[in-house]
Amino acid sequence: MKFSRFALLAGLLLVLAAILTVLSNYQLLALDPVAARVARWLALAAVVAYATERRSLTFWIVVSMLVGAEIGHDFPTVAVQLKVLSDVFLRLVKTIIAPLVFATLVVGIAGHADLKQVGRMGLKALIYFEIVTTFALFIGLAAINLTRAGAGIDRSGIAADTEKLQAVEQSTSDIILHIFPENIAKSIAEGQVLQVVVFAIIFAIGLAMVHGKHRRPMLEWSESLSEVMFKFTNVVMYFAPIGVGGALAYTVGKMGFDPLFNAFKLLLTLYAALLAFVLLVLLPIALIARIPLRRFIQAIAEPVSIAFATTSSEAALPRAMEAMESIGVPRRVVAFVMPTGYSFNLDGTTLYLSLAAVFVAQAAGIDLSFGQQLVMVFTLMLTSKGVAGVPRASLVILLATVASFNLPSWPVFIILGIDALMDMARTAVNVLGNCLATAVVARWEGEFVDNFVAPDPVLDLAEADSSLAHH
């Protein structure tokens, strides 16, 4: 406990020293530059020691950011050479996207191959999912275009080391043709994510239409591939602290601390946009569907809190399903809508991706028209389907998509610096949105029980004991 307190105190010292360094140029308290540098490195050493004790990947990413920023500030010449670390990480991430998206989409669609069984409820759920996520997409676009959180970054140091980047001018027919693959191997090699998605969707529909004896082996293979890619992603993410540290060292060494202020502005933009989405979209939907708000809020408080604290939708899933049953949603509706929503109704993630994608373009100094922004975030919305359970899934999707739109990757690493704080909010909204979707579909089906009283397990046990005693 004493060591933990010391590490936290050292972290505060580091933050204070960094603020004094950046804002006062050592003049505010007459600090000696050498003494300030030594104090910062001692604080970093304490934080690294604490990270070794905690063994948390998220915490290690934060520590690597601090170390990378310090290296970039103190040793800019060395920091520039560390870009190779972020490039290695970026390449590894790019290898994940095609097999992961293919496998998860095939399992998600063909896994519910009996379309008669899915029936009317499935169609209603999918219509609801796409309408709500589209609202999330537009709110995200409006927020980032209003705050322009990525604008104003000095890219003079980056320009010499990157190819000339520009938005590709395409006609409507070019955009439509670009969606459909002509050679799936070529699409994978060139990183054309949307083409992989289209191929996977058509493949899954075809798989759902074949006889069970032919469908089952391919579905099992896709499930195996999906599980392997989840583990592959876990392995690659162990390299994330090194890649993020190298990227931030390079960024700070080239451009100073300005990009970090833009990242903080992006964080505030996300929280404000998510709040607006809840109040302007989810709340009116709940009122229109006549969902009992007080009971609904009481029921979802625990699963949403779990999602916020753990940044894991899966951790909150069992409790969320129980909560929806407790307010009168039939189990068969919960069992279908909730898991499906985890693949197709990622409201918080969709909003976040629209913000992050345009932030990357703004940071790179590329002015995208509204139509180009729509195409990019529509691609992100499609590619994010089915990968909710993947650690850092948003990073994988975002990196692959911005690359296919000729955008640089270095702003994504700036975003990753605050990704843990952003992940908490977007995961909580994902769970909230899926809980509401379950209740809305139940109401739409005419199966929502308004005066439902959840059984009390204590009373049930008492009645069972009484019955046994009677017999």
Specify the helix fraction band: over 70%
Number of strands: 0
Which structural class best describes the helix and strand composition? Answer: mainly alpha
Largest sheet: none
| Percentage of residues in DSSP E strands | under 5%
Rounded average pLDDT: 75
Pfam family, one: SDF
Subcellular location: Cell membrane
Transmembrane segments: 34-52, 59-80, 92-113, 125-146, 193-211, 232-252, 264-289, 351-375, 395-418
Main location: membrane
Structure description:
The chain has 22 helices and no strands. The protein is an all-alpha fold and 471 residues long. The protein folds into two domains: 2-81, no CATH class; 84-444, Sodium:dicarboxylate symporter (Proton glutamate symport protein). The longest helix has 33 residues, at 115-147.
Question: Could you list some keywords that capture this structure?
Answer:
single chain; 471 residues; mainly alpha; Proton glutamate symport protein; 22 helices
Note the topology.
Blueprint: H1 2-24, H2 33-54, H3 57-74, H4 76-81, H5 83-110, H6 115-147, H7 156-159, H8 172-179, H9 184-189, H10 193-209, H11 212-237, H12 240-255, H13 258-288, H14 293-310, H15 313-326, H16 331-344, H17 347-363, H18 370-383, H19 393-404, H20 410-416, H21 419-444, H22 457-470
Subcellular location: Cell membrane
Keywords: Cell membrane, Membrane, Symport, Transmembrane, Transmembrane helix, Transport
Membrane topology: Multi-pass membrane protein
